[in-house]
Amino acid sequence: MSARFNSLFLNQTTFDSASPLGSAVVVHRFDDEGEYDVELGREGEVPDRVALSVAPQAKKVQASSVTIDVAGAAPGTIAGLRHSKLDAGGYTAFTSAHARSAGSVIVARRRGAKDAEFDSRRLGEPDIFAVTLVRPGLYGVRNTLAKAEGRIVVTYPVVGERPYRPADPVDVVCAKKGFDPERLEIGPAQGIIFRFETAAHLVIELLEPDDGPKAGPRGRWSGARPRVKPKASPPS
After folding, report:
1. How many Å apart are CA 115 and CA 68, to the nearest integer?
2. Domain shared by 2 and 102, yes or no
3. Residues facing 206 on adjacent strands
4. Phi and psi at residue 6, in whole multiples of 5°?
5. Count of C-beta atoms within a 10 Å radius of residue 54
6. Which of 24, 59, 100, 228 is the most buried (most CB within 10 A)?
7. For every one of its 236 residues, what pLDDT tens digit does the chain have, with 9 covering 90 and above?
8. Are strands 190-196 and 128-133 parallel, antiparallel or unpaired?
9. Is residue 128 part of a domain?
10. What is the DSSP string of 18-39?
11. How far apart are CA 81 and CA 64, in angstroms?
């Protein structure tokens, strides 16, 4: 599983908050205790289900957390019963190391509520969408629910005497008027944490790869052109 995750992590250039996988993760906080059903699957297909129990908040210094794999069962297999437990006020992370991510995540109370507790197709406060972009280049980010767009530049690493180490993650606010900041420059493998002041479905896509100082967008040569010896003029 480790090798499969590393391959996806290094090659991933598209990220979708509705179906987080690879180096993308969606985090939701559960404030109310109760029994929940987590549905994992694509629209029109029979979903895989995970039971989630949220117990009364325990006297702990640190909030509890749990991770749920959104990939679900492999096609053609029977999903085993999965049951996760969490304290009220704790956090559930939704992600997958598999490329076969099953689609969206919908969480509903087992009893007593008409509306879903959580829907990954529509994130909002206090949800978090965290991504790590490894491939250098220019990325576009858009909120499909608000028609807001932004740009992310992942710089090409500079080879020096010291090993490269990513800087700390940066925060981006997804507001009604757009992204703040609207344009961001980060280093490879530096994390981005999206926080929400409005409903959002985020899609991040690589627009132009950066293959280093001697290669321009999409591999075009950007250095000095080689000199060409002019042809001799024909004798008059």
Report:
1. 21
2. yes
3. 139
4. -60, -40
5. 24
6. 24
7. 444 445 666 789 999 999 999 999 999 999 999 999 999 877 667 778 899 999 988 776 667 899 998 886 555 544 556 789 999 999 999 998 876 655 789 999 887 677 889 999 999 999 999 999 999 999 999 999 998 999 999 999 887 788 889 999 999 999 999 999 999 999 999 999 999 999 999 999 999 999 887 654 443 333 333 333 444 545 54
8. antiparallel
9. yes
10. TS--TTEEEEEEE-S-EEEEEE
11. 22
Token pair of 167 as six digits? 């800087």
In terms of domains, do 117 and 19 share one? yes
Q: Are 143 and 174 in contact (CB under 8 A)?
A: yes
Geometric angle at alpha carbon 195, from 194 and 197, rounded to 5°: 135
CA–CA distances in Å: residue 198 to residues 30, 90, 92: 19, 22, 20
Which of 121, 146, 178 marks a domain boundary?
A: 121
Q: Could you tell me the two tokens for 230? A: 């002019």
- 70-108 core/surface letters (b: 16 or more CB in 10 A; e: else): bbbbeeeeeeeebeeebbbbbbbbbbbbbeebbbbbbbb
Per-residue DSSP letter, 79:
P
- H-type alpha helices, 30-180: none
The whole-angstrom separation of Cα 215 and Cα 19 is 33
Q: Verify that 109 and 131 share a domain, yes or no.
A: no
Count of structural domains within the chain: 2
